[in-house]
Design the sequence.
């Protein structure tokens, strides 16, 4: 393992360590982009679920009273859970493991 040695003007004198840090930062950036892509795709799916819940809510209004209540309860729970999932999806923080 190489030690980081800094010169008087703050430049790194240890090239292998600096290269490892740069590679780690690039890898971290790539992982972040992939994670944001996955989050975006999941959010799109959850927004579609919310849209279908709204359409189902409107459709359920035409049903007899006993069916309408059950359908609207299920659709409301589905919509609320989708909103909660989107909130958790985007509030989750990534954990970074540093190898020694």
Sequence:
């Amino acid at each position: 393992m190489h030690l980081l040695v800094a010169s008087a003007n703050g430049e790194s004198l240890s090239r292998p360590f600096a290269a490892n840090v740069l590679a780690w930062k690039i890898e971290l950036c790539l992982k972040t982009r992939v994670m944001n892509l996955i989050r975006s795709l999941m959010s799109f799916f959850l927004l579609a679920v919310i849209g279908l819940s709204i359409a189902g809510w409107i459709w359920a209004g035409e049903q007899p009273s006993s069916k309408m209540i059950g359908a609207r309860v299920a659709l409301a729970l589905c919509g609320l859970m989708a909103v909660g999932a989107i909130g958790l999806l985007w509030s989750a923080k990534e954990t970074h493991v540093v190898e020694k």
Remarks:
- The radius of gyration is 25 Å.
- Residues 15-91 form one domain.
- The longest helix spans residues 15-60.
